[in-house]
Amino acid sequence: MHEPAPPLVEIERLSVRRDGSVLLEDVSLAVARGAIHGLVGPNGAGKSTLLSAVLGLVEFEGRIACHWRDSGRIGYVPQSVSIDRTLPLTVADFLALTRQRRPVCFGLARTTRSRVARMLEGVGLTGFEGRPLGTLSGGERQRVLLANAMDPVPELLVLDEPSSGLDEDGTARLEELLVASCRSSGATVLLVSHDLDQVRRLAAEVTILNRSVRGSGRTAEVLAG
User: Fold this and answer.
1) What is the dihedral of CA 140, 146, 149, 155, to 10 degrees?
2) CATH number of the domain residue 47 falls in
3) What is each CA distance from 138 to 142, 163, 191, in whole angstroms?
């Protein structure tokens, strides 16, 4: 019999301290390859700090192991991005910033325009290329951020409260796109959410965090009741 495939991400005895304060202590969890893993807990529990550790943005003690098969690319969708409404940056400009060598102020290459169009089609925003980024609704902006995170296809997609501030329709649309994108790409997802119903809908497994792990396992069992 074949040995079971390892999880994509293994976190072992991870601790983060800052200015004498303990932000995370002795955190261990595994994120199964190709699955959506929820991360829940109260404000100040260290959820965003844990994501920062996975993204390599904070120093930590312990071990984070990622068992990449291909690119080792990580896509990231933050809670929100503050955009000056007067900033002369279109949706296409934003998506092209890291996808062509020529500065976007000199125009987009034909191949970049085609790529941006495909990215927007994937999140249901066909025709939004010329829209000023600062005029988008919260839901539209999060869908642009999801498009940005999914191209090139990541092995790990990290989502930090992606539906924060969205209404019910915007949340439902974002969840639908997220599930469809992950099924088609095979991406593994680490999802921070304050919405337990959302975690129940999306995540196969969940970890409850409050500076340390307070529960972890199958979502239906850990969040029963």
Assistant:
1) 180
2) 3.40.50.300
3) 6, 9, 19
Residues in the chain, total: 225
Could you tell me the CA-to-CA distances from 189 to 32, 74, 91, 112, 181 in Å, in that order?
Answer: 9, 10, 25, 27, 11
Q: Which domain holds residue 118?
A: 83-151
- The pTM (predicted TM-score) of the whole model is 0.88
Residue 2 lies in a domain: yes
Cβ pair 6, 67 in contact under 8 A = yes
**Same domain for 87 and 143?**
yes
Per-residue pLDDT tens digits of the chain, which is 225 residues long: 445 557 999 999 999 999 889 999 999 999 999 999 999 999 999 999 999 999 999 999 999 999 998 878 999 998 877 777 777 889 999 998 888 777 777 778 889 999 999 999 988 899 999 999 988 988 888 889 999 998 888 999 999 988 877 788 888 888 888 888 888 888 899 999 999 999 999 999 999 999 999 999 999 999 986
